[in-house]
Structures are given as C-alpha cells and as structure tokens.
Amino acid sequence: MQPLDHGILRTHWLTREQLVERAARLRSPLVLRCIDDYLAGQRRPLLGVGHLDMDGARDIPAVEIA
C-alpha cells in the first residue's frame, strides 16, 4: 500500500451517490468526471488528463467518443 499524500488523513470507499453528496470536499472535480466516464463505458489512459491543472479542470467540457 502506498503512503497517503500530505494532508490526507485516511481513505474511504464510497458509492457514486456518496461522492456526489461530498462533491465540494473532493480533491478535484476530475474524481466524479472519471467515475462518470468509466460508468459510461469510456476507457482512456490517464495521460489524457495528467497535464490539467485542478483549478481549470471544471471548465473543460467532457469529450464524447463515438
């Protein structure tokens, strides 16, 4: 098991609904976006989002893959 990042006290396993209830407390808006993409069947390497800054990520529209 890897050590937690600085400032993180513990980890929790939550349902999507529980995450939505806590959206303001998530480290990044990408948490829910990645979960929603996964649930929609979209699979992409994380290299596609690794360069995004956390403050600007909310303003980036989702990409639909046909």
Radius of gyration: 13 Å
List segments where confidence is low: pLDDT < 50 over at least 5 consecutive residues.
none
- The quaternary structure here is single chain
Largest sheet: none
DSSP E strands, number: 0
Q: Strand-and-helix sequence, N→C?
A: HH
Q: Structural class from helices and strands? A: mainly alpha
Query: Can you tell me the overall shape?
Result: globular
Distance between the termini: 37 Å
Percentage of residues in strands:
under 5%
Helix content: 10-25%
* Individual helix count: 2
Mean pLDDT: 79
Describe the fold and architecture.
- The protein is mainly α and 66 residues long.
- The chain has a domain at 16-59.
- Helices cover 24% and strands 0% of the residues.
- The longest helix is centred in the middle third of the chain and has 10 residues, at 30-39.
- It is globular, with a radius of gyration of 13 Å.
- The model has no long low-confidence stretch (mean pLDDT 79).
Topology:
Layout: H1 16-21, H2 30-39
